[in-house]
Amino acid sequence: MDHQQETTEQIHKKARIKSQESVVRSSFPLDLISEILSKLPAKSVGRFRCVSKLWSSVTTDPYFINKFETQSRQRKPCLLVSFKRDDRLFVFSIPQDRQSSNEYHPIASQPVHSYHMTYPKSRRFFPRVSVHGLISCFQEETKPIIWNPTTRKLLILTKPEKSWEYATFFLGYDPVDAKHNEYRVFALGSAQESWRRIKTNHKHCVNSYPTRHTDKTERFGFIMSFDVRSEEFHVIKLPCNNSGPGGILASYEGRLACVTGNAADDGTILWTLMDAEKHEWSRRYFPIPIPYYDRSVETVFNFIGITDAGEFVYVPNRFRKLYYVLYYDPKRNKFHRVEFKGIADDESRLKHGLVNSRLYNIPAVMNHIESLRSF
């Protein structure tokens, strides 16, 4: 009898779901449902996937995932601050762009979104850039980890070669086929996920910064670019007087830029790529040091990138109870300091069990957007 009653309830439940899906189909076109859902936060989309099979199908479709990323980018990228303690990964998402203000004093910030998740205790945590919402957490490791901070999922890739003790990994993206790629290439989302060898005639030493050509007959600073679709390497020469290592790559006014310190007077030089084929760069000088020491808070701030508004972003090398972000406006030659609460204050430390923890060299990743991409 119980079994029969349970079966009956299941039948009625399926009938209700089918009826609801029928109403949805008759009331709203699928493209309208997709449009509405793509404007919601990722957390809400995750919940709505459980509403019905139809909505689950809509929100897991590649077209919807790409559309959601477009909407997320329009809502402005964020600055992702994260650190690992034992097997816990603490993640803080804060506004990347500074609020408009002519004042130097700390600006009242928006609420900091935070969460923590489990991370392999034996694995190092070294996040690099965010590529369409995915982050590679290792630069030199036999098994790289790909992390989606939005879905809180981790993917541990296989080792390219068993004999390799260390390798350098970068994350790329093919905007046509919507595939992420990593000299060995591993295509995420392809039919055959395996490492493939890519040949290049350019002798170089892989680094995350501009480096030098390895041919002793001709030494010059250069950037090695990799087209993830054609799987071809290209060389972009840096200006001859900028051939030393240590430059930081950034995006400035929609162009590739390289930011370097000027040892002559402790200033900063911004090189902007004007023509990749002709290796032409423009040069701008700013009377600010990299890194920057703020005497008012007695803290060293490291340069990490440039916002869409053209402001230089500096994050603290270490912090105690307060977390500040420095913004340098090159047009006004002026710094603005923004305080973000909820990261290192007493209440947050007590909440996360970090009362006596020293927080220094905390990674901060710019231009992060929400992504629903699965592995």
TrEMBL record:
PANTHER family: BNAA05G37150D PROTEIN-RELATED, F-BOX DOMAIN-CONTAINING PROTEIN. The lineage of its organism: Eukaryota, Viridiplantae, Streptophyta, Embryophyta, Tracheophyta. NCBIfam families: F_box_assoc_1. It comes from the Eukaryota. Pfam families: F-box, FBA_3. This is F-box domain-containing protein. Residues 28-68 form the F-box domain.
